[in-house]
Design a protein that fits this description.
This protein is an alpha/beta fold. It has helices at 4-11, 15-22, 32-45, 51-57, 77-82, 84-99, 109-113, 115-124, 138-145, 169-182, 206-217, 234-247, 261-273, 307-322, and strands at 70-74, 103-107, 129-132, 150-153, 163-167, 188-192, 227-229, 255-258, 283-285, 302-304, 331-334, 337-339. The chain starts with a helix and ends in a 10-residue tail after the last strand.
């Protein structure tokens, strides 16, 4: 088991200096470079600050009074509350944990990435497992994984060495393009968002990759002017679609594939405000099948993602990992289904 002394020797400072940094003691100043080295050593060596966490590391915790029955949930709080996709996943997690007498604790990405709060957040709260939706650094994943089980949801964690509950985004988007091609569409555009911190990287986003692959398989041309990176903001989807229409109404795609229903609904509004018809002038297809998609005008064709089931399975998986029933980082891909509505019904000739 790693001790303060080990960290001190690793960094080349006194034990008291290490203690002050880890305890976030503000009474004596420690320069930032030394702090950074100490926190790096904490992660690399896998220091665990209290006996409760040590028991977790050693897999010795039994179902006794030492159990906290707390599971952490790392997600953007605004997103979890306002985005219907994430809100439904959250509900699946919460309902499943509650039935099994677990408590769900909300933790923000900032709390994990603030090194002065990291140990307190993970260890002192008594979190037994952690569910991840918001993206955190790989170094944090590796450190936390030494102490407690992790389960990732959504595309940030597909390629990480942790348990993941998700669906096949590439396959879903391929199915959408194939459906539109079967209806006679040849001029197809894309609306979505990128990945990484600024959401600029569209080319490595799985839904876009599926779109590109399906277009190439169908022998169809990709038109850069019909590809829109909204950075996952509805207002950007609306504005970009509006600008596309106003630049050249005579040269529009006959269909727009959208990486989420929210992006589709915003773009559809721009089409309607420009006195164009959906789906006669431009057909739309979204992803997620959020509740409001069936009440849009016209109702939005979309991909049904088992959002509640994703949350339920994530909760079930983290409970089984905490209880020692699962020890390997399982990867679970849940099925999707196309939902055809009026926004894409017209066949092209």
């Amino acid at each position: 088991m790693v001790r303060l002394k080990d960290i001190a020797e690793y960094v080349g400072v006194s034990i008291s200096t290490v203690s002050r940094v880890i305890q976030n003691d503000q009474t004596r100043n420690v320069n930032q470079e030394t702090k950074n080295k100490i926190w790096q050593a904490v992660k690399e060596l896998g220091y665990v600050p209290n006996q409760h966490a040590r028991n977790l590391v050693n897999n010795k915790q039994e179902k006794t009074n030492t159990r906290t029955m707390k599971i952490g949930w790392v997600a953007n709080p605004t997103q979890a509350e306002t985005n219907p996709y994430f809100a439904t996943i959250y509900r699946g997690i919460r309902d499943t944990l509650t039935v099994n007498d677990y408590t769900l604790i909300s933790i923000t990405k900032d709390e994990l990435e603030n090194e002065a709060l990291l140990l307190e957040t993970i260890h002192d709260l008594g979190i037994e497992g952690l569910l991840l939706i918001d993206k955190i650094d790989d170094s944090l994943i590796q450190y936390i994984q030494k102490t407690i089980p992790l389960v990732g949801l959504d595309f940030f964690y597909t390629d990480k060495n942790i348990a993941v509950i998700d669906y096949d985004r590439e396959a879903a988007m391929k199915a959408v393009v194939q459906q539109l091609v079967s209806q006679g569409h040849r001029d197809i555009g894309f609306i979505g968002g990128g990945i990484n911190g600024d959401y600029q990287d569209l080319h490595n986003e799985f839904r876009y990759k599926g779109f590109v692959a399906a277009m190439k398989e169908a022998g169809l041309e990709l038109h850069p002017e019909w590809i829109i990176n909204t950075k996952w903001k509805m207002e950007n989807s609306y504005e970009a679609m509006n600008q596309l229409i106003q630049r050249n109404t005579a040269n529009l795609p006959t269909a727009m594939v959208c990486a989420s229903d929210l992006m589709a609904l915003a773009a559809m509004r721009a089409v309607i405000e420009n006195k164009l018809n959906i789906p006669k002038d431009v057909a739309f297809f979204g992803v997620d099948n959020i509740e409001m998609s069936k009440y849009s005008s016209p109702p939005l064709s979309t991909v049904e993602i088992p959002k509640y089931e994703m949350g339920r399975m994530a909760a079930k998986t983290i409970m089984e990992m905490v209880e020692g029933k699962i020890t390997l980082p399982i990867k679970m891909s849940l099925p999707f289904e196309l939902v055809i509505r009026d926004s894409s019904l017209i066949k092209r000739t």
